[in-house]
Amino acid sequence: xxxxxxxxxxxxxxxxxxxxGQSIGAALIAAGHRSWRSTRIEGAPRGLFCGIGVCFDxxxxxxxxxxxxxxxxxxxxxxxxRTQEGAGHGxxxx
Length: 94
Prior knowledge:
By secondary structure, the chain is mainly beta. 7% of the residues lie in helices and 31% in strands. The protein contains 1 helix and 7 strands; from the N terminus they run E-E-H-E-E-E-E-E. Strands 2-1-7-5-6 form a 5-stranded mixed β-sheet, with helices on one face. Strands 3-4 form a two-stranded antiparallel ribbon. The longest helix has 7 residues, at 24-30. The relative contact order is 0.24.
């Protein structure tokens, strides 16, 4: 049992429970999500792989900022986390 304070953040249209100090990736896994991004070309599902920030499989958009590694970003109360779409820069397409 953790002694940290618990709080909520939003993932797409779902409320996710998290504990103080927990990464977004850990909170998503604890909530039953195994993948939250798909590869650009083949659309293969991706989630936590290395868990230490070496790979880029766990990318999410956090508070409007794309390409954030969910395993490294600490979950914060009220965060708005979105599924990563492709390279996360659709707004820059020509």
